[in-house]
Design brief:
With 228 residues, the chain is of the alpha+beta class. The chain folds into three domains: 93 residues, Immunoglobulin-like; 68 residues; 32 residues, no CATH class. 29% of the residues lie in helices and 31% in strands. The strands form three sheets. Strands 12-11-10-2-13 form a five-stranded antiparallel sheet. Strands 3, 5, 6, 8 and 9 form a five-stranded antiparallel sheet that branches. It has a three-stranded mixed sheet with strand order 1-7-4, with no helix packed on it. Belongs to the FlgD family. Keywords: Bacterial flagellum biogenesis.
């Protein structure tokens, strides 16, 4: 894939065969409850009114009800065990993400090294402009680029030719048609992942810019480019 340069502003562990203590305890409880249920059912049959005995279907309903509860308990225990295993696996996998660069629609940290942008012009765009703002939302640059989805590089130089300081920057692509803006979308960038954690069942990534994003927002991963 060709990269355009615009100047000066845009240049585990396997499953165990032995059940854990929790699962064993749950199995014992189910077994104990089932024995109690059978004793109660036997007592009920022995003491029923001979002139008005219970229908066999009533016994079947009671047995089916207990069986359903038993299966639900086992299912819940199984899901809890699977959740724990998946959580451990995810954390193990995420450890390899730290230090990688993730591409997502977020801000980027500029450290005097050119930043590659991945524009996506709106359909029908006749002209496109990259708008650069700092961490406070102040516009630092606005420069026209070709109407294309080819990546471009931002060299960190303002429209006046001044070298901008290191810091957090946001990039938006304005698409114009007939002199009117028909699209204004933030441009995806690559940022280094400095931390990965799980919160409320969701994987959160912390980027070098300080921004936090969900792992589901990442559409590409790569190794950091080697320093020249």
């Amino acid at each position: 894939m060709e990269t355009n340069t615009v100047s000066p502003a845009l240049a585990g562990k396997g499953a165990s065969a032995q059940p854990d203590a929790k699962e064993t305890s749950a199995g014992r409880v189910i077994s104990s409850d089932f024995e109690t249920f059978l004793k109660m059912l036997t007592t009920q049959m022995e003491n029923q009114d001979p002139l008005n005995p219970m229908e066999s279907t009533d016994f079947a309903v009671q047995l089916a009800t207990f069986s359903g509860v038993e299966q639900q308990v086992r299912t819940n225990d199984l899901l809890a065990a699977m959740s724990g295993q998946l959580g451990a696996m995810n954390m193990s996998d995420l450890a390899g993400w730290v230090g990688m660069e993730a591409r997502a629609t977020t801000s980027a940290w500029f450290d005097k090294t050119p930043i590659t942008l991945y524009p996506d012009p709106a359909s029908g765009a006749e002209r496109t402009f990259v708008v650069v703002t700092d961490g406070q939302g102040t516009m630092m640059d606005r420069v026209e680029i070709p109407v294309s989805d080819q990546p471009v590089q931002w060299a960190g130089v303002s429209a006046l030719g001044a070298k901008l300081p290191a810091g957090q920057y946001n990039f938006h692509l304005q698409s114009l048609s007939n002199g009117k803006i028909i699209g204004d979308a933030q441009i995806p960038v690559f940022s280094e992942i400095t931390e990965a954690r799980v919160e409320g069942g969701q994987t959160i990534l912390v980027l070098a810019s300080g921004a936090e994003i969900a792992a589901s927002e990442v559409d590409a991963l790569r190794k950091p480019p080697e320093a020249p």
